[in-house]
Amino acid sequence: MTSFTGGCLCGQVRYEIAADAGPSRVCWCRDCQRIASNGTVNVIFPSDAIQVSGSPAKHDKTADSGNTVTRRFCAHCGTQLFSDSTGRPGLTVVRVGTLDEPSAVKPTTNIWVGSAPSWACVDPSLEQFDGPPVVAPQAKT
To answer: How is the beta sheet containing 14-18 ordered, strand by strand?
Structure first.
């Protein structure tokens, strides 16, 4: 198992993650563009593997998917840290730029490319989806 640490710009919110990194994606949805003025690079972790010190503020919004997304950010400096979705219970999206070692995670996919502005630098070597990523169906046991 891998461990990661990270935090916000001012240091008032810090976190530790005791888990291997899940999928990592560059997201070009309009909400991510609004919070970052660009696409955001994100990685998914089990929520219960993340220990947070400090008190992030939060904002709930209904996404284009219809899910409620709760974004957590530093109330002091505004750094976007995490998001949780009702469509992914038990999983938390972490903004890769907030990791102490952001090069430890490499994105493999561009999502919501259909929403990207014409000037976006979309890496053509990564898998691409015009909208949300396609999730393989779970095998029935």
So the answer is: 3-7, 14-18, 50-53
Each residue's pLDDT tens digit, 61-104: 998 778 899 999 999 999 999 999 998 999 999 999 999 999 99
CB-count exposure of residue 82 (10 Å: 0-12, 13-18, 19+): buried
Q: What domains appear along the chain, each with residue ranges and CATH number?
A: 1-22+43-104 (2.170.150.70)
Identify the residue whose tokens are 């560059």: 26
The set of residues, in sequence order, having a beta carbon less than 8 Å from that of 72 and lying 6+ positions away, is 56, 57, 58, 81, 82, 83, 84
**What is the C-alpha separation between 15 and 96, in angstroms, rounded?**
12
Q: What is the mean pLDDT of the chain?
A: 91
Largest CA distance in the chain: 48
- Give the sheet arrangement for strand 91-95, strand by strand: 57-62, 68-73, 80-85, 91-95, 40-46, 24-27, 109-111, 127-128
